[in-house]
Amino acid sequence: MADIRRILVVGGGVGGLTAAASFARRGVEVVLIERRPAFDIPGVGLGQPANALRVYDTLGALDQILDTGFSYDRMWLFDASRRPIVEHKFLMGDERVPAFCALSRLELHEILLGVAQRSGVTVRLGLTVSEIHDDGDRVAVRFSTGEHDTFDLVAGFDGIRSTTRLHVAGTAFSPRPSGYGAWRVQAPRPEDVRGMEFLQGIGSKTGAMPLSNNIMYLFHIRPEAPGASFEGRDMVPLFKERLAQYGGYVAEIAASLTSESDIVYGPIEPLLLPWPWFRKRVVIGGDAAHTFAPHLTQGAAMAAEDGFVLAREVLNDDVAIEDRLMRYSMKRYPRCAFVYTFSGQWLLDEQSVRTASDMEAARAELTQNASARIGVSDRILDSAF
Ligand SMILES: Cc1cc2nc3c(=O)[nH]c(=O)nc-3n(C[C@H](O)[C@H](O)[C@H](O)COP(=O)(O)OP(=O)(O)OC[C@H]3O[C@@H](n4cnc5c(N)ncnc54)[C@H](O)[C@@H]3O)c2cc1C
User: Fold this and answer.
1) Ligand 1 atom closest to the CA of 182, numbered from 1
2) Cβ contact 283:310 at 8 Å
């Protein structure tokens, strides 16, 4: 609308790039700043469900994403020896978008960066915000370089350790250690890995997500001490030890790990900020406002939805800006709360399998209920937002 002509987006992840492109394609002047000096984003791969693919379609990026990634329409639950428990066909997607397309995080970022730049977004790297002064009509910003500028709106998509969240909500809400962590490594894709797989172990879970015809990533979720950090060559023996109970391709990948392997570890630290997700003219979205256990592969998808919905709600009419930002907050919160709760419960359920008899009970329960349970989630996430 006429009062939002120039905005600052803080953070160049999936959420920030989607927000920036969505505003710029509607004629708003957008400056996006990214703290990192280059777009060499760490991370392995991202499964992007149909709801995220529909957002990328509004940006004209769908074909490029589908050409780059690996599309799949089902997932499998196995035991640690890769004996099948459940095959689930996702109830998502339509004739235009597949249920899922997974690709490397770097490739997704490059595609979205290209869209943002072609839409006219000014991208500045190696820059952050030092101070924000918001008088309710304009937001004055001082950057880490000492430069000053003013904007009609500041949108913080600056991730789980967001400083924009501190401006909006203070220190009352921050990510909580769950006591669980995720290990990941890229590996060649065995031909029979045709969609996302979870291998339920005793005391941990492992899985795979294909990223292309040749590559997949292996992930492993287990209890880890809050604050634990693993580095360098120590990671190889620790990861091997953690994968020891798993058979099939997992055992082969474990055996092939060397000090050259790019193993990534991160704690799972859930957060759900209550609404409103704004103060005056500063608003947040993506991991800055919510982070989830990764089970529904919806973190980046919800960040992309946030960016799209923020632009739509801010630009669709000219009621007071606070009302538009409240509308954004209220539309986003229930969907994100659903993902937060569902994926958090899934994490707790799988990690509660601690003995052989727990495993047999889990096998029976999953055989009977898992597909129906995931199907409900598919339907909710596939619905309009
Ligand atoms: C193990 C694991 C697996 C996952 N798998 C999936 C999956 O398959 N599918 C999926 O959709 N999601 C997945 N996720 C979640 C997903 O990674 C995140 O939800 C998503 O990256 C959030 O995007 P974002 O843009 O909000 O934040 P980020 O990706 O964290 O981007 C924030 C950006 O802001 C920058 N930044 C930070 N502070 C500042 C500052 N002060 N100034 C300027 N720039 C700043 C950062 O450098 C970064 O580039 C997974 C997460 C984990 C942990």
Assistant:
1) 1
2) yes
